[in-house]
Amino acid sequence: YPSEFLMQKITEDNQIPVHLHVSVSLQYVSGLKGRALVEFFHSNIAEVENEELRHLMWSSVLFYKTPNVEVMACVLLSTKAIYFLLDDSFIHADEHQSDFWNKENSDCENSSFHLSCCFVLKLNDLQSVNVGLFDQYFRITGHSADHIVTCLTRDSYNTHTFIQQLMAVLSLLARTPSPEPVDKDFYSEFGSKNTGKMENYELIHSSRVKFIYPNEEEIGDLAFLVAEKMDGLTSLPSLNILLYVLAFQVNHFEGSAQNTSSLQPKTLILTSSDLFLFDEDYISYPLPEFAKEPPKRDKYQLADGRRIRDLDRVLMGYQTYPQALTFVFDDVQNQDLMQNLTLDHFGE
Questions:
Q1: Most-buried pick from 23, 63, 87, 330 (CB within 10 A)?
Q2: Cα(149)–Cα(67) distance, rounded to whole angstroms?
Q3: CA pair distance 208, 143, nearest whole angstrom
Q4: Does domain 216-329 sit in CATH 2.30.29?
Q5: How many Å apart are CA 220 and CA 45, to the nearest integer?
Q6: Alpha carbon distance 211, 140 (integer Å)
Q7: pLDDT tens, 16-48?
Q8: Which CATH code is given to the segment(s) 4-173?
């Protein structure tokens, strides 16, 4: 251990997305290759001597307790736990995290060491994995609010690969079998299903971890929500959602010492007649079992919407990944003609 193939694969995956900025400590990690990367894992991150590193992925992550702070992380999957090596800027982003993060090492800030926080979710504590629409993100749920993390991969391939690796690692866990199901009578079996709402697709792994996938109703709910935002301009039966993708809206700041741009996470939804940008809550839905009240905000909040017939032209950047698209709308009512978007991918 480890095999040459695994080391080569982990080395290839160890690349920070070019459009996201990270701290010096994570840049150091992204520069490690092959055996050096595995040795770094065992000497700095691994909690048990005999655990094996199986998969590495760079992703933006959200925590349930800080739903407004998206932070870059190096996600490491081993045979014992999932490790989230976090950008140290996250610790200073929100003052309400003092009880969530241990700040023992704050006196080292002025030294030559670069420290990162590592959030550990042991596989034995894992209860469920919710996969988002079109595999754009997934949420990992443990036994408390501290143990809920969403990985915003914005990439169906990365999501699929991680889920496959996670299932393989969970298969190695020795867990006591579930108790035998109690025989239910006819009324209790069907009486609780009278809500008329279809449950999401659930795959219960042999380790008893649930993998929950969205069903067709979620698209239907989303189409209904989009139709509401369109002020009845079209009839619902004719409304089709052609594209759902997690993207970034580019806000360009001019006049500063150097022209800079910030990336605002948005959900882009394209229908046959309109283009929408939504602020989506990726972490709070579906509600965890221990949640005592609904989240403070709706799952989807409309940020902007334009008619396709007002679209004048689309400007495309020349870089390969991620692709920058500028939508120019000929919209007389709205003076803000330019819409900048950076998309991880746009449908064929």
A1: 63
A2: 10
A3: 14
A4: yes
A5: 43
A6: 9
A7: 988 778 888 899 999 999 999 999 999 999 998
A8: 2.30.29.30
